[in-house]
């Protein structure tokens, strides 16, 4: 397998173009054991390979972003990671942007190693962007932010997540009165400063759940994309997006996993579901 080539444009520029031309949608590749069973596949490497190849072949030439969840591949050990490596390379070769959902977060040389895994073009897992966790302090993410900037990649930082447990950390109030989530958004705004020209995006985004309801107390205009999980199986719909994101809705990249994947294993079902979600989002985002 050849090593994917590094990007020649910043991630935010490529993401805006992909959203405008292919539709504003990210589809997760989440091979849950139960989903493999629903597809009539075995919960082993053979099932994982068949599932992943089907999703990539059906959608990589059509959707803006594919988001493999690393954990569902790692659970099979080195052979599962090998499947993930092939999926990343094949999806990018077909024109999709790949967002690796790894949610890594650490300090110092360990964070630098995580960054190199997903953001160094020499790595077999080199992706267009990666999700990270800021809860060892936003400054601990510096190796990932710097490497992404160097190679034209993107970073999505957890800010206001859709899981109920997240509130105990993200809504905590810091000295001075700002919440932890608001502080993360402020840091991202600073990282994107000067990068986002008219009609485009910076490369440093926030993860903000589509199931959270009205968020007017937060300034979501960070100059970068807002990855919005929660559409589909978690209960949110594209029609909910303007009420959640307000004026920032055009910068939202909704993420759908089971809402599309449950329409497999036939490729036509996957394509139809993804196209329907993308059109619904386009209709409300303008």
TrEMBL record:
Associated pathway: Pyrimidine metabolism; UMP biosynthesis via de novo pathway; UMP from orotate: step 2/2
Pfam families reported in the protein's UniProt record: OMPdecase
TM stretches of this protein: none
InterPro entries: Aldolase_TIM, OMPdecase_AS, OMPdecase_type-2, OMPdeCOase_dom, RibuloseP-bd_barrel
Catalytic activity, as annotated: orotidine 5'-phosphate + H(+) = UMP + CO2
Assigned EC number: 4.1.1.23
Molecular function, one GO term: orotidine-5'-phosphate decarboxylase activity
Catalytic class of the enzyme: lyase
Keyword vocabulary terms for this entry: Decarboxylase, Lyase, Pyrimidine biosynthesis
Enzyme active site: 103
Domain of life, per lineage: Bacteria
Orotidine 5'-phosphate decarboxylase domain: residues covered: 24-273
Family per record: Belongs to the OMP decarboxylase family. Type 2 subfamily.
Protein name according to UniProt: Orotidine 5'-phosphate decarboxylase
Gene source species: Streptomyces pactum
